[in-house]
Amino acid sequence: MFGGFGPIIVGIVFWILELTLPELTLSGGQVLSAIASTYLLAFIHAGASVFNQIEEWPITKSLLCHFATLFVAYSLCYISNSWIAFEPIVLLIFCLIFVVTYFIVWGTVYFAVKATAKRCNSQLK
Fold first, then answer.
1. How does pLDDT run across 70-115, given as a tens digit for each residue?
2. What integer is the mean pLDDT of 37-42?
3. Helix or strand or coil: residue 78?
4. C-alpha–C-alpha distance, residues 37 and 95, integer Å
């Protein structure tokens, strides 16, 4: 069911770009690459969750592996699709945004799961 959201998101992004940058033109190859990239990123994102399920690993190790996998995948995808320019300041801004967003999302999920587990454990007593 969620597989169809990638192309929809790409379509919305391209529509916004069309509204804000009327001189922008996209080739069929660019659109195909964008759609394939969203599917690839979704696949990698789902697969990277396995790091959080390895019980023998400390949370730091699973967090770093998860982060590194997603960072490399998103960076390569954004650069190869020319969604961000391969320029030092642009890459630095991308890195900062990625790191901040990643840790906000990760912290939110972590504390939500922890609160849910605490509530479930208290109900079991």
1. 999 999 999 998 888 999 999 999 999 999 999 999 999 989 999 9
2. 86
3. helix
4. 19
Q: Which two tokens stand for residue 35?
A: 């759609």
Its pTM surpasses 0.85: no
Give the position of tokens 């696949």.
43
d(C-alpha 15, C-alpha 104), whole Å: 28
Alpha helices in the chain, H assignment, sequence order: 5-20, 28-48, 59-80, 88-124
**pLDDT score recorded for residue 2:** 56
Q: Where are the beta strands (DSSP E) in the chain?
A: none
How far apart, in whole angstroms, are the C-alpha atoms of residue 12 and residue 16?
A: 6
In whole angstroms, how far apart are CA 58 and each of 62, 119, 121? Answer: 7, 23, 22
DSSP 38-68: HHHHHHHHHHHGGGGG-TTS-HHHHHHHHHH
Give the Cα-Cα-Cα angle 108, 112, 115 (nearest 5 degrees). Answer: 140
* Tokens, residue 106: 């990760």
From residue 114, alpha-carbon distances to 39, 97, 107, 121 in Å are 30, 26, 10, 10
